[in-house]
Design brief:
The chain has ten helices and three strands. It has about 180 residues and is mostly helical. The chain folds into two domains: about 120 residues, TIM Barrel (Alpha-Beta Barrel), CATH 3.20.20; about 35 residues. A three-stranded parallel β-sheet has the order 1-2-3. It is globular and about 50 Å long.
Length: about 180
């Protein structure tokens, strides 16, 4: 019998039911311990719908190499998250510094949030190369056994990478050109 930690004990039946219904379990918001619990209980593929490589950017949302291998071993899917703070460690450090500064400020919560958003908006966005690094790293770690997807959450689309905006502009231009032809 599999030993289930308390963190999953109450959710085991839910996971089993989801698997019976052929639903994928999503793990991007789970702690490392909960991720391990899901690995112990599930039999089917699961999904990290918006996570990147923790070795490249040390966000807790991102997966360790071992997690990526576990996902690949199950035939899972990993969605590469386009949010700058999950791609580029320098951007993530700047955001963390601003978050600490915001927490220590004596302003109203609304004023702190406005200042925080302004500072984040002023940060230079990482290049599209960071997306490629995470894709290549995931493919290498998983021995090309993990299915990959692109994911732009509402946060991610607000902090879109340089190059990706240009790609979107180019795509719109191309679409307009074809509509005129």
């Amino acid at each position: 019998m599999v030993r289930i930690r308390h963190s999953l004990r109450r959710g085991r039946r839910l996971i089993e039911l989801a698997e019976e219904l052929e639903m994928m379990i999503a793990v991007s918001h789970l702690s490392d311990t909960a991720f391990d619990d899901v690995c112990e209980v599930t039999k089917r593929p699961f999904i990290a719908s918006h996570s990147n490589c923790r070795a490249l950017c040390p966000s807790l949302r991102n997966l360790t190499d071992g997690m990526i291998r576990a996902l690949a071993d199950r035939g899972g899917v990993m969605g590469i998250n386009l949010y700058s703070g999950f791609l580029d460690p320098e951007f993530a450090r700047e955001v963390s510094a601003y978050q600490r500064e915001r927490a220590e400020a004596n302003d109203t919560p609304e004023a702190r949030e406005k200042i925080f958003k302004g500072k984040i908006a002023s940060l230079p966005r990482p290049s599209i190369d960071w997306v490629a690094r995470h894709v290549l790293s995931t493919r290498s770690i998983s021995a090309e056994r993990t299915a990959l997807a692109w994911v732009a959450t509402s946060t991610g689309s607000q902090a879109c990478q340089r190059g990706l905006r240009e790609l979107q502009t180019t795509q719109r231009s191309l679409n307009s050109s074809f509509e005129l032809a």
